[in-house]
Amino acid sequence: MKNVQSVSAAPTRGQVARLILELGPSTAATLGSRLGLTPAAIRRHLDNLIAEGLIETRTARTYGNRGRGRPAKVFVITDAGRSAFEHAYDDLATNALRFLAEAAGPDAIAEFARRQLADLERRYAPAVAQGNLAARVQALAEALSADGYAASAGPAPAIGGAGGGSGLPGHGAAGEQLCQHHCPVAHVAAEFPQLCEAETEAFGRLLGTPVQRLATIAHGDGICTTHVTCTTHVTGPETASATTNAGKAKGSAAVVRERFFDAAGEGRATTDITSGSGGLLI
Predict the structure, then answer these.
(1) Average pLDDT along the chain
(2) How many Cβ atoms sit within 10 Å of the Cβ of residue 212?
(3) Which CATH number is 2-84's, of 1.10.10.10, 3.30.360.10, 2.60.120.620, 2.40.50.140?
């Protein structure tokens, strides 16, 4: 309760913490610029948030050759920080899933997760049915935000430059990126990744194109990040009821491990994705 009261009692400090939650790993310069704070002021708020255990520091990831000098330091939200923003964690749900896994095996957890996501698919389907891929991904982000996921969408970043030696597609061919800055079930999903896998499958069906989960809050990343390829493999997404009636998703264990699903839920290895198809190789 101390952390929650601390954030609410200091409005500017709360704004800093919320911005880190929304943006993911951020530098002090970025935060200060967005909030109109001086370097000394933003540093003071960041130091207080670190002391309270609401945020922590990490070394920024770099791609390609890094120049001279000290690597950039970024600030990320902690589990305690997420709890300060009404993070929903339910011990009863975790214990119930543990019992289900012991009684019926891990396949029962996967089936439970798919059934939970079936309702989400039914509710979101009308919103994401119209427009081009970018518009549909944006509509999905807005629907997720309405459900508390603080989601955002935009073009997938081009890493290594267009046609660079990294083997990654250039900007524009990279597809779209969906980011969820908050996960109401992150603690539960950390123990039961089937929840994340079912969500990824649902996104692929809703958008009618292959998607790939690149990072999850449950796995310790700052943001749940999903890559959406720009090549559509089917004319429309499967309905949630069809998946439910099928009794089980079609993704294979290998695909679950690689976190890649096509629009129909069919598992494919990441090596099947090529830069020419707008996929992302990792």
Answers:
(1) 76
(2) 25
(3) 1.10.10.10
